[in-house]
Amino acid sequence: MSRTLIEHAKAYPFFIPDTSYLVDQDGWRPLDSTTTPTNPHRVIASGSNASPDRLVAKFKEVPALLSNPISVTRAALQDYQAVYSAHFTAYGSIPATLAYVPKIKSDVFVTWLDDAQLAHMHKTESIGVNYHYTPLANIHLVLQTGEVLNHAHAYLSAKGCLQKNGQTIALSQMSQTEVLRYAQSLIMPGQDDLDGFILSHIKSEQIRTDHTQKLRQTSL
Q: Which domains does the chain carry?
């Protein structure tokens, strides 16, 4: 069981398809990318919220909310990048957030949610603790349909961005295993039992809180 939990933590941000897709009570399937979804809340997903497996897991206990399917559309976002947040999740990973990085274009997904789905997502994101639900205005977000949006929301880290040499760390720069090793070197210099380090965060909320606080001391 411990090995499975550790491997799951290292797998972040989990499987992300190459195409837009739909999540409903039967799981997920590719989405016709020629039609813009109609659910009112468009939320940029830069980390595991772009993974159909993760979204299915988040709604597993409330399947009725998926009677109205969630559309998840591929998009390109200008001047923002998916980077690592300065905190640990309850399942042992270091998760993502968005950071403003001028002149860069990032591949992201947009989740289209109704009111009840958004309220549930807020619970899974620990709003006010780990993330803030933040409006992004005057952005350039190009959907796979070709439509351009200039306003959306995103979950931005309340803990700041993990940094190395004064710079944010993009998910494309370090794998989850690499970023966990880097965090371990900051918190526990000289220790090399990465699996034990990961498992400690899964098993102990206090250790997770203490180690997150250490990361926050140098976060951006």
A: 13-174 (3.10.490.10)
